Amino acid sequence: MKLFWKIFVAVFISFLVVISFISYVLTVKQVSDWKDHILAENGVIASFISKEIEKGYQESRWPFESLRRLSEQEDFLFWWVVRDDGAIHLANDASLMRTYASEYFPEIANARDENVFLNRNQNYGILVKSLEVGEKKWSFWLGFSLRRLLEVRKQIVFLVVVSSMSALAMFGLTLYFLTRHFTKPIKDLTVGAATIGEGDLTHRVKIKSKDELGELANSFNKMTEDLDRITISKDYLSSIIDSMIDSLVVVDQDLKISTVNKATCKLLEYKEEDLIGRLVEIVFATGEDTPFTGTKLKNLIEGGEVSSYETYWQAKDGKKILVLFNCSVMKNEYGDMISIVCTARDITERKRTEKKLKQIMAELERSNAELEEFAYVTSHDLQEPLRMVSSYLQLLERRYQGRLDSEADEFIAYAVDGATRMRDMINDLLDYSRVDTRGKHFEPTDCEAVLDRTLDNLKMVVEESGAVVSHDPLPTVMADNVQFVQLFQNLIGNAIKFCGKEPPRIHILAEQKGKEWVFSVRDNGIGIDPEYAERIFQIFQRLHNRKEYPGTGIGLAICRRIVERHGGHIWVKSQPGTGSTFYFTIPIKD
Amino acid sequence: MTDNSLSATGRPIEILLVEDSPGDVRLIIESLKENKLRNKLDVVEDGVQALAFLHQEGRYAEAPHPDLILLDLNLPKKDGREVLAEIKADENLRRIPVVILTSSKAEEDIFKAYNLQANCYITKPMGLDQFVKVVKSIQEFWLTIVKLPPE
After folding, report:
1. Which of A71, A215, A383, B97 is the 20 to 30 Å CA partner of A111?
2. Domain range holding B92?
3. Looking at the partner chain, which of B23, B104, B129 has a beta carbon nearest the beta carbon of A388?
4. Global ipTM
């Protein structure tokens, strides 16, 4: 409010001074005018009477009528005719005759010339006019009251004071409101700026006037709005930093910690005040090689950052924590380092998981090796007795054919067949298990080359059956090329094997759908009942007997194993009599 | 075909069969019979007996010196590979052709056998017909086509 009072008081006082001055001047002038007027009035009367008296003396007659009229005047006090010796010759009050004027007015007693004497209190005046009667120098004295003047003066003063007061009051009020009109907005802006400075960007200054102050307020509010929009408040930043899960530590040029977030305090079990100002070394485990020492520090400042650095931090109780540490240098516009911003993540869990994973991998490899050995040994050792059974049955068949009854022949035939099948199945199982245990690493495999190889392997059956194999352009995919030949061979072999009365016509194509290739092998064979569409992929599952179509029923199971090993899946769409289309997907690896 | 089943001195050719499976022994005998080539077959069941036979030790004091050895790899007691190694290291025995006749088709076995200087390596076929054919072929090859060292 200081501005308000400053302006108000200054202007008011100036006004007051001016009004006072004007009032004074006016009053004085008015009063003076009145005085002059009264004096003039009386002067005229005195002159007139003097002339009358001079004239009357000649004729020995006093102008009593005029004198009488004079004494009836409002201001009249007395009239005297004073002789040259100072004695009162004639007066309105006869008792004063023969007294001396000097008895009453000693100071002006000897006045003979025309003069006006006003007594000090200014409540009466005496006009002295010289009378020429013969050669004598007499004077006519007129005493008049200035009471009228005094009253007028009182009135004038009163009037002037009242009007001044009113003027002052009016002025004061107007000034008050005017000043307030100007100083209040300034106050509001001040308060507004303070509020906004403290962070409340929603505050708006309310100034409704349509003048420059209103414009100022609008600009101010607009500025605040813009600020609100583009500024991220300190609280917001603080809450980001404190909601981080990773640790954040900011280090100044002296390598002392200037800021830490809640996550850091929680991880290291320190209070914030225990870390601020300490050398950054304190968070690292004793003996650890930190990026803040020696050449490492130099490299950090030059390179600007250190990332993915595995190191040990140390909690308050000395417990070591494995962290993944990153830091980067914050520079000012001149390229000088002002601080280093560091983040760290507790990776003990991750390390534990990695270790476990390694163990599982090792376990898996060992298990796989064992499985491979088991599969080999099993099939190998099983083959021996199988060979005995098979060979001696065949020997029997040979030696005793025709010599035993036909039933014996039949029995022997079934036995031989059984043994042969068992041998085939053992070999197939071995192949099946080897999809995983003998799988190779994936490499870019040209499927068209795979197809050529497959058709080469199947040359004889293709020729015998008169099969026609066509294909659309096939892509190159990441795969085990040996297994891919196996896959194609099984699918195309099946398509040829399970053909109907017509020569097999087979078409192969590949489409890219999203992140995988979808291959399809379409044939015009006998088709598959959708009810069995899932079953045919199981080991040794067949839909026909061996006389109709040979085979152990492992082909599609191996296909599924191969496709799944590559991360895809395989299925069939078919109807009996209308051919089948086998689909399989291979994911596209980056 | 000239009947070379007789050696230069006119005696029948001696074959030593080292085989632990009686079933296979019998099959081989039957297969050899079909060729009607004259040779004598001696059979031992394991590696220890094989070497005793070859060194004419103990009960094999009167054993003949074989012209051809058919050797199985997987034998009890002394393993076929060891027998092979010993034969080929022995001054007196190393010239005898050793035919490895085994059910294993493992590449390592083949490699090891040749490395130990087996004369040839044959995998026993699964089917009877094949088996007979192979045995007959061995007989023909080593006994009628090939010239054996004089002893």
Report:
1. A71
2. 13-140
3. B23
4. 0.81
